[in-house]
Automatic annotation (TrEMBL):
Family designation: Belongs to the short-chain dehydrogenases/reductases (SDR) family.
Organism encoding this protein: Autumnicola musiva
Matches recorded under InterPro entries: NAD(P)-bd_dom_sf (IPR036291), SDR_fam (IPR002347)
One Pfam family linked to the record: adh_short_C2
Protein name, as recorded: SDR family oxidoreductase
Length: 260
């Protein structure tokens, strides 16, 4: 048998699927014929993001879900499972608070850890019964290059407003380890768990600061920042049958930042 990247028979759940990078991932999955449920807190943002998409209400749907709330996650997964058997979960959403590495409050730290790491754990825990019930499935977690390496603080010297906070990298490193843990735990149930680690993918508003973008570009081997469309293929690969024998791995899409 030769596997391909077609996702026509797959139902994919993606948290935060209407964000800057989430939108590109969602569109890539749709292009490869997946049925996609975008999980988020704002139906309005979902409709604004995909208002011109030909996939809306055909293979693209919204499901209300707050990843900070286990009950909300449980309800969303149950609602989706009533409509379509769940094949793949992409943990992309996160929330955070605070930035200063020296003056961050306990509350800000706890919020960042909860929104970046704990929320991923909650979603994994709640999806397991559905995947175990069919003895197959894929979980794809989103980490960050700062879960692998420390920030280059000279990059932020003239742009302190963009400084990466300490809880973000700590939590994203936790996402990579959580990926390995559940890959080992769920392998016997024929469930794969992998991570995608993006590098410098600054959003549109951040890109308006040209000097900061130039600093980011210098740190990559390709001398440019990532574009949203650079990221989608990794998720299509991990969602498709072509990655069936791959688990516990971290796929790094960073333009070579972490090898320099």
């Amino acid at each position: 048998m030769i596997y391909n990247f077609n996702l026509k028979s797959k139902t994919v759940l993606i948290t935060g699927g209407y964000g800057y990078l989430g939108k590109a991932v969602t569109e890539s999955l749709l292009y490869h014929e997946a049925t996609v449920f975008v999980l988020g807190r704002s139906n309005k943002k979902f409709e604004e993001t995909f208002n011109e998409s030909p996939y809306i209400n055909k293979t693209l749907f919204f499901e209300n879900c707050d990843v900070s709330d286990s009950k909300s996650i449980r309800t969303a997964f149950n609602n989706i499972n009533d409509k379509s058997s769940i094949d793949i979960l992409i943990n992309n959403a996160f929330y955070s608070k605070g930035q200063s590495p020296e003056e961050m409050s306990d509350e800000d730290w706890n919020t960042g850890i909860d929104g970046t790491l704990n929320s991923v754990f909650r979603c994994i825990r709640e999806v397991i019964p559905y995947l175990k019930g069919k003895s197959s499935g894929k979980i794809i977690n989103v980490s960050s290059m700062y879960g692998m390496v420390a920030p280059e603080f000279n990059v932020y010297k003239d742009f302190p407003q963009f400084l990466n906070p300490p809880h973000y990298g700590a939590a994203k490193a936790g996402v990579i380890q959580l990926t390995r843990y559940y890959a080992s735990h769920l392998g016997s149930a024929n469930i794969t768990v992998n991570a995608v680690t993006p590098g410098p993918f600054p959003s549109g508003p951040v890109q308006e600061e040209k000097g900061f973008v130039e600093e980011l570009e210098k740190k990559t081997c390709l001398n440019r920042i990532g574009k949203p469309e650079d990221l989608g293929g990794a998720f299509v690969f991990l969602a498709s049958d072509t990655s069936n024998f791959m688990t516990g791995q971290n796929l790094v899409i960073d333009g070579g930042w972490t090898i320099k």
